Amino acid sequence: MKIPSEIVQSLNEQLNRELFAQYMYLTIAAYFLERDFEGFGAFFLKQSREEGEHAMRLFKYLMEKGVPFQPLPIEIPPKNYESPLACFQASYEYEQKVTLSYYNLFKKVRDMGEYDVEEFLQWYLREQREEEALMRLWMEKVAMVKGEPTGLLFLDREARKAAEKEESEED
Ligand code: OFO
Fold this sequence. Notes:
The chain is mostly helical. Helices cover 80% and strands 0% of the residues.
C-alpha cells in the first residue's frame, strides 16, 4: 500500500530530526572532549551514533515502501553551552520535543488508518521513552553536583562506564 504524501512528508521530517539529534550530540561530545571530560564525551558519541541508526531505520522503511528520498537541510546545532548541566538540559529538552513530534505523527497516522506506518512507529515511541528517561537521569545527576569539579569527574567516569556497558550489550 502506498503511503499518503502527507505522511511521507512527516516521515521525512522525523528522519531530519534524527539526523539533527546525531549532529547535536556530536557537537555536545566535542564540548566535553575539548574540556577533557572523556566519559561524557564517550556517552554523547554513543548517543550520536544511535540517533544515526534511528535515521537509517526511517530511511530503510521509506525505501521499502518505494518512496523517493527527499533530503532536507540539517540545522546547525548550538555549540556554546554554558556548562555541562546546560548540555544535558538541552538534550533532555530535545528528546521531549522529538517525542512530541512522534506523538503528533502517530495520531495522524492512526486517524488516517495507516496501520503499517502505525506499527512501524511503535518502535520509536518505546525508544523515545527510554531516551528521555536516560537524559533525565543524567541531567539530575549532573545537577546534584552543582558544578563541583570532584563530583563532575566522578560522574564523568560513571558516564564512560555506562557508555561502555551499553556498547558491549549491543555487540
Ligand atoms: Fe532518536 O531517539 Fe532520541 O531523538
